[in-house]
Every structure is written in C-alpha cells, then in structure tokens.
Write a structure and sequence with these properties.
About 35% of the residues lie in helices and about 25% in strands. The chain is of the alpha/beta class and about 375 residues long. The protein has two domains: about 1-110, 3-Layer(aba) Sandwich (Rossmann fold), CATH 3.40.50; about 135-280 and about 315-365, 2-Layer Sandwich (Dihydrodipicolinate Reductase, domain 2). The strands form three sheets. Strands 7, 9, 10, 11, 12, 14, 15, 16, 17 and 18 form a ten-stranded mixed sheet that branches. Strands 3-2-1-4-5-6 form a six-stranded parallel sheet, with helices on both faces. A hairpin with a 3-residue loop joins β11 (about 265-270) and β12. The chain is globular and about 65 Å long. The termini are far apart.
C-alpha cells in the first residue's frame, strides 16, 4: 500500500512513525505547507501531487477542519483512492455527500479514529451490527469535558480554574468551544447512530447542550444527593423511531459512567442479543489516534469498506420525558429545590433544549432515573 498523508501535525507524525518499517504499507508523500526532509517520503504542497499520482492507492486525512479537508478527501475518492480519516466533523457534516460517492467509486472509506480515538469504538460497533440489531449507542465521548467535570467533582474547583488547568496540560484547546459546548460529542453520536441504525440522521433534529455554564455550587448540590455530572450522548431506536441528543446528565455515584476519570471515554452500545457492552480508554492523543488510523489501513488492505450501508435520511424525535436539575429562570412545574436550583417535573428532551436556547446563561442536567 502506497499512502499519501494529508497533514503532519500530532496525529500525522504518529501515523508516519507507526507505518515506518512495515512491509505492507508506506507513506510516500506528505502534504504540508512547509517543506521538510523525511527519510522515505516526499513533502508536497499541492494536493494534485497526491490525487494524480497513480502509484498512491490510499489517502490518510489528518488535517482536521472542514475545508480544504473535505475538498481533498472528495478529490481522492473521485480519483479512485481509498481514504482513511480521523476527522469526525468532516464525516458527520458531509455524510450524505461522501457515502454515496464511496459506494459509486467502489473504494474503502474508514474513520475509526474519529470517535473514541484510542478505543476502536466504530470497529466494535461494526462487528456488533453485523450479527444483531443495535438499540442504543452513546456515553462519555469527549475527554476534555470529562476532565473538567471530574476535577470539579474531585477537587471542588470552579469551571474556569479547571479549564485553565486542562489548557495548560494540553487537554483543552485555547478556544475550547467545540468541546465544552458539546459539538465534538454531537458529531460523534450522530456518526455512531448513523452506523448503528443504518440511517443518515438530520443533524438539525439532534439537540446539544454543553457544560460551559456549570458552577461549583451545582457540583456541591449533586454531591449532596449522591450524583455525579457527566456530558453524555444518547442515540436510541425504539419501534423504528430514533432519538438522539447530547446533554449534561446526573448519574448515581457507583454507576460505570460516574467512575470514568480524567480525560477518558466510556462508550456503550446495547444490542438485541449481547445487551450492554462498554468500551473504555483514551479518546485522543498522538499514538492512540494514530494506532486506529493504522488499524484502518490494515482493514483497507483486507478490502473492508465503510462500517454500514448508506441509509436513508431520518429525523430524531426527542419526546422522551426526563426529570431535570435546572439553575436559571425556570418557571415550569417544579418538584423540589436544591439550593437555588429547581428539580423539575418530567419535561421532554426537545422542550428542555428549546428552553435552554431561550435562556443561554442557564444550566440544566437530566437526572438519570
């Protein structure tokens, strides 16, 4: 296998290092802005030097972002090349454009590193869906949020201080919005649900709420009631109806999610026959992510295509009613108060997310029964 590598940052370098010395694959060209000397690969600045090179059969995209990454990936597929990417935003955003093209061109397209970079989650989900119907997917999919929530819980620190700590350690970006506002998790659960249920979810029907507004006083309230806050994604299929959402969720101390430490992930599927199966590990990092990129390259050598057939469009219906912890200008039915926060009567997921959009400074977390 001759590989064209798009991007030579943290993950790109990891992929290059893990493929060096292998007999079955070799990075022969690297696309990057600046020239550099590599012992067995040529650096190029023009994508055409890769997509028009007939000796290259597989392209690895680890640039990140939507553009020009999407344009380059699309050009590679149109040129008949296999593609491996770690870019969940790209795959999720352009799912309806890429998957039909992949099927038309008959190439392999893999993105295991895009969700749970060190876990191999999508490969496990692929194996499960081959032999059973999947009822539910989801869990803790973002290490940055988990690091913040875990340290707020264990150390009693406020959000801003823990965020600065996470940034200093490299667990959070200078602009953490994609993580703390739940967008990274949103991309991941949509992609997971698409594969699990064989559909293409309308992203606009999948609501998301992040952790930006959580305060130390909230965490103290949770502790007083034996609860731990985690950012949890959910994708369910019941009687042919799909629901999907991302939101802070309060779980009982002692449940598996409550014990997930630091920047780790815990992602779960519930199958018709296997029931609940969970996968724990690092969600990101040079070698965990690069490891799964190389696993995908091995799968491409074996002729594995995408994880599931491209399915028809589907809208999420989020009418499930939950009890919520709400701090903010809540005027709905209330069961009790925890300090200045309300514990609501059952409210649908859709209704609570609509309320949060109208009250951007409020904080709400679903209380798992």
């Amino acid at each position: 296998m001759k590989i064209g590598l798009l991007g030579f940052g943290v993950v790109g370098r990891g992929v290059y290092e893990l493929t060096r010395g292998r007999d079955d694959m070799q990075v022969v060209k690297v696309l990057r802005r600046e020239d550099m000397q590599l012992p067995d690969a040529k650096t190029v600045r023009d994508i055409r030097d890769i997509v028009e090179d007939d000796s290259i059969d597989t392209v690895v995209e680890v640039m990140g972002g939507l553009h020009p990454a999407y344009d380059y990936v699309r050009a590679a597929i149109e040129a008949g090349k296999n593609v491996v990417t770690a870019n969940k935003a790209l795959v999720c955003t352009f799912y309806d454009e890429l998957l039909p093209l992949v099927q038309e061109k008959g190439v392999c397209f893999r993105c295991t590193a895009a969700v749970g970079g060190g876990i191999g989650w999508l490969s496990e989900l692929e194996r499960a869906r081959r032999v059973q119907s999947i009822r539910e997917v989801g869990g803790i999919m973002n290490g940055t949020c988990n690091y913040i929530l875990d340290n707020m819980t264990r150390q009693g620190l406020n959000y801003d201080d823990v965020l600065k700590q996470a940034q200093a350690l490299g667990y959070a970006e200078a602009d953490p919005s994609t993580d703390v506002d739940g967008i990274d998790t949103w991309h991941k659960v949509i992609l997971s649900a698409n594969i699990a249920f064989g559909v293409s979810l309308d992203k606009e029907t999948v609501p998301v709420a992040g952790i930006r507004n959580i305060k130390a006083e909230d965490v103290e309230n949770f502790k007083a009631h034996g609860l731990v806050c985690k950012l949890i994604s959910t994708g369910k299929r019941e009687n042919g109806v799909i629901s999907a959402y991302v939101q802070p969720t309060l779980v009982r101390d002692g449940e598996p999610e409550a014990a997930v430490p630091m920047n780790y992930n815990l992602i779960t599927f519930i199958g018709e026959t296997s029931q609940r199966m969970s996968f724990f590990g690092q969600g990101a990092g040079r070698y965990p992510t690069a490891y799964n990129v190389v696993q995908d390259l091995v799968d491409v050598l074996a002729g594995k295509g995408f994880y599931a057939p491209y399915g028809g469009r589907a809208a999420a219906v989020n009418d499930e009613k939950l009890t919520w912890y709400v701090r903010g200008n809540w005027s709905g039915e209330t069961k009790e108060y925890w300090g200045s926060a309300a514990v609501t009567a059952p409210v649908s997921v859709a209704a609570m997310h609509a309320w949060l959009k109208e009250n951007p400074n409020a904080f709400a977390a679903a209380i798992r029964g």
